[in-house]
Design goal:
This protein is an alpha+beta fold. It is built from six helices and four strands.
Length: 175
Amino acid sequence: MQLGNVAEFYMTFFALLRIGVAPVNALFSHQRSELNAYAAQIKPALLIADREHALFADDSFLHAFIAEHPSLRVALLRNDGGERDLATEINRPADNFIANPTPADEVAFFQLSGGSTGTPKLIPRTHNDYDYSIRRSNEICGINAETRYLNALPAAHNYAMSSRVRSAFSSPAGG
């Protein structure tokens, strides 16, 4: 999943968790080499990206990416307006939906390392890992039902995900 700081990032991220899909949250600044490295490691079935990203402005990279990673079965793009449109899927009614989240001690999603030694590495994080991080962050930072949070960091960044954004969504007010 590679979306910027847009509402669709959060809607998509939490929806994927709800159905038991463990996403990789690529930073919006990541390019061809990073995306190919992540795909080679996890063999994704789904790609979610944005037409506003230079790589996805047309279909040339997308077609090459699909050809190089045969596990990829579905590609959804924000701002596509066509058959791959993310908004269409977000707004499609879920007939007979049954939530199937992964158990708390299993991988929820893959966080990225800092990339100080090259391409960032994928770090599996369980629901329990992040639940602990969120609870402690709420305690340390005094997050409560009155808290409002403006995220200026990349939405997919480890600090924003583990310490701030998910804390705001899990505060007593529910976000």
